[in-house]
Design brief:
The complex is a heterodimer of chains A (284) and B (415). Chain A has 284 residues and is an alpha/beta fold. Chain A is 44% helix and 23% strand. In chain A, the strands form 2 sheets. Chain A has a 6-stranded mixed beta sheet with strand order 5-6-7-3-8-9, sandwiched between helices. A 3-stranded antiparallel beta sheet of chain A has the order 2-1-4, covered by helices on one side. The mean pLDDT of chain A is 86. Chain B folds into 2 domains: 268 residues, no CATH class; 119 residues, Jelly Rolls (Sandwich), CATH 2.60.120. The longest helix of chain B has 42 residues. Classes of the chains: A alpha/beta (284), B alpha+beta (415). At the A-B interface, helix 1, helix 2 and helix 3 of A face helix 1 and helix 4 of B.
């Protein structure tokens, strides 16, 4: 299978103004996304999911390691032609209406006007925006803006779809519609990378998941295989996720305590030595 | 590529064009000539019209400068703040295209504002001319615009030629003479030599001079004897037959004053002036000139906006435009700092001197100074403005902005 995205030992360190390391967002992260699969990227807040997406899109540059997207470096326009991206929030232009938004992004992809108009009509219909296309985006509800966000990510009929919290702010009906659209896209052989907190959605859509914790990958595998021991339980992925994260948290806590104890011991020994030296000096 | 740039330019235009701010501005630009039509000037019909035109252009250029700083400094930093740039950057666009698209968008917005202003100027000019005719009852063509030509060479006494080059005056000793050569004068009926002179004797009022006016192909030059007072601007009528078909003119002045005193002509004031083109032609040229200046300002605003936050960009651009606009005033500050021996003064001096070196003198590049004298903006002047504000101003600034912004990590932006 073709590897659409490949991360090879990628580390991302955010630095401060003086170029001193501030936060390690990703630590030696390696993974790949194969053509036609749906991969879920999970993790608590601050685990490095958004950083991973930004690295794929070329918005951030890796401190160490290599990234390739469609065999090119991230940010390469040849690779970007095949990518559709739905950001976490609706970063749309509030002064454009839905039609103008889709038309603008269609032009950015150099789509001929007949294809552009055809796709706009199709997407407006598919995502339930038809009838509201002349209203400025600034007046849209969060759910409607989300639908439009998804529509703009599909305007170029992408081979790779990157979705950051696709159902964020949507009602259950809307969420279900989006889920069905994604399943349709899966049938069409599209490659999808999803970041989501709604684990039930991930479970029913994704082929494979990766769980990140504090910039490190703690689990990776096929959904069926990972959830094998949780069969018959309600919300198995949620339980699995919580167990894995809890285990990792405890490990980190233990490690921290161990380091703290060792440091304390070392400090006590140094203090003891110093005290003895002082006492010895007073005696002499 | 061009299509993408224009799509981005459309986005910039769309962002501002239907906002309350932009519509208000368009109305203000339309009303500026209306307000200025109430100014009285020096009480003459010509004075009233000059004040109307000069103040309209001065006010509009000041507002345009402010508006451009405000709009352009928001351009990139606002997209980063609202994170719309994340979405834009995920598309197959080069960041340079984003910057160019924004700049072209601002140029178009400026064009619309200038167009609104020029339309209003045309309307109120016609209205004012009718008002002036009925009020002043003068038969003056206020819509006439003049061309001004400086001598391209002069012949004086051989021994004094090198010394004279550096001076601000042409000095003619008693009994001495000087010949000025002019070229490029178009055929016109009312040609004048405007000049101002002074002598070492302040009390001397009327100075006698002898003029020979002709051209190299003319057999015998026209002779004129004059008595003019010093320290005043004079106009000497040039017979139209003295100008050759190629537009050449040669004027010789012989100092024959019986008091044996030297006459010093001010170099800046000595010019040939003749009516050429009309006021409407000048309006279009002045509008183009304003567009060039605003293009430079918006490029600078975009540059800072791509590097720092909106507020810092606005402050930085304003400071540089202030230096550029008040070139003369800044030069004074530079000179005053030269006397200081502190390190801060030394660095400020170097910084200001460098700023003056790289920035075009905007105060000299705004057309109201020309318009005040009813002078047509020559193409050579527009070419100079284009070179300094666009080729050596906006283009390098935009290239720097593109180079920096293309390498910038956008994902870490937090304001």
């Amino acid at each position: 299978m073709n590897e659409i995205i490949k991360f090879d030992n990628v580390t991302k360190v955010f630095k401060d103004f003086w170029r001193k390391p501030k936060v390690v967002a990703l630590k030696n992260f390696s993974f790949s996304v194969n053509e036609g699969e749906i991969l879920g990227l999970l993790g608590p807040n601050g685990s490095g999911k958004s950083t991973t997406l930004k690295l794929i899109l070329g918005l951030l540059y890796p401190t160490h390691g290599r990234i390739s997207v469609f065999g090119k470096l991230p940010g390469d326009n040849l690779a970007k032609r095949f990518i559709g991206y739905l950001p976490e929030e609706d970063y749309l232009y509030s002064y454009l209406n839905a039609y103008e938004t889709l038309d603008f992004f269609g032009k950015v992809f150099n789509l001929p006007s007949n294809i552009r108009n055809e796709r706009i009509e199709l997407l407006l219909e598919m995502l339930g925006i038809k009838g509201y296309e002349t209203r400025p985006v600034g007046e849209y509800s969060k759910g409607m803006a989300r639908r439009l966000g998804l529509a703009q990510s599909l305007i170029n009929d992408p081979k790779l779809l990157i979705l950051d919290e696709p159902t964020n702010g949507m009602d259950p009906i809307g969420s279900n519609e989006i889920k069905n659209i994604l399943l349709d896209l899966k049938k069409k052989g599209k490659t999808i990378l999803i970041c989501s907190h709604l684990l039930a959605d991930i479970e029913s859509i994704c082929d494979r998941i990766i769980i990140l914790y504090r910039g490190e990958m703690i689990t990776e595998g096929k959904v069926d295989e990972l959830l094998d021991s949780y069969k018959g339980e309600k919300n198995p992925l949620e339980k699995f996720f919580l167990d894995v994260v809890k285990k990792k948290k405890e490990e980190v806590k233990e490690k921290k305590e161990k380091i703290y104890k060792e440091e304390k011991k070392e400090k006590e020994e140094v203090d003891k030595d110093l005290l003895q030296k002082l006492l010895h000096k007073d005696d002499s | 590529m061009i299509r993408k740039i224009f799509s981005l330019a459309y986005l910039t235009v769309k962002k501002h064009i239907f906002t309350f701010g932009f519509i208000s501005l368009s109305i203000i630009f339309f009303l500026i000539p209306f307000w200025c039509s109430y100014l009285q000037g020096d009480g003459t019909s010509e004075g009233k019209f000059k004040v109307f035109v000069t103040y309209s252009f001065l006010l509009s250029s000041i507002i345009l400068i402010t508006v451009n700083i405000a709009f352009s400094c928001v351009s990139i930093s606002d997209e980063l703040k609202k994170k719309t740039m994340f979405l834009l950057d995920s598309k197959p666009l080069k960041r340079g295209q984003v910057i160019l698209g924004k700049w072209i968008g601002f140029l178009f917005l400026n064009f619309l504002l200038i167009l609104s202003f020029l339309l209003s100027m045309s309307l109120f000019s016609v209205f004012l001319s009718k008002k002036i005719k009925s009020n002043f009852k003068e038969e003056k063509n206020i819509f006439l615009t003049y061309a001004q030509v400086s001598p391209y060479s002069f012949i004086s006494g051989e021994e004094e030629k090198s010394k004279l080059k550096k001076r601000e005056t042409y000095a003619i000793p008693p009994g001495g003479k000087i010949t000025w050569n002019f070229k490029g004068i178009k055929n016109a009926s009312d040609i004048y030599l405007t000049f101002k002179f002074y002598t070492s004797k302040k009390e001397e009022k009327e100075i006698t001079g002898y003029w020979l006016i002709g051209n190299p192909s003319m057999e015998k030059p026209v002779e004129i004897l004059t008595e003019f007072s010093q320290n005043e601007v004079h106009r000497l009528k040039i017979p139209s037959e003295c100008v050759s078909k190629k537009g050449q003119l040669q004027i010789t002045y012989i100092n024959i004053d019986p008091e044996n005193i030297s006459v010093l002509f001010n170099k800046e004031e000595l010019k040939i002036r003749y009516p050429w083109k009309n006021y409407w032609d000048n309006l279009v040229r002045s509008g183009f000139n304003l567009l060039l200046v605003t293009g430079f300002i918006s490029a600078m605003g975009i540059f800072f906006s791509a590097i720092v936050s909106t507020l810092t960009a606005a402050i930085s651009t304003s400071v540089l435009i202030f230096i550029s606009y008040l070139h003369g005033f800044t030069e004074l500050i530079v000179k005053s700092l030269m006397g200081e021996k502190k390190i801060f003064a030394y660095f400020s001096y170097l910084l200001l001197k460098f700023s003056l070196f790289i920035l075009p003198p905007l105060n000299k590049f705004l057309p109201h100074i020309y318009i005040e004298d009813s002078l047509i903006l020559p193409f050579s002047y527009l070419k100079n403005v284009f070179l300094k504000t666009t080729i050596f101003g906006a283009v390098p600034i935009l290239i720097l902005a593109i180079l920096y912004f293309s390498k910038r990590e956008l994902g870490v932006f937090n304001e």
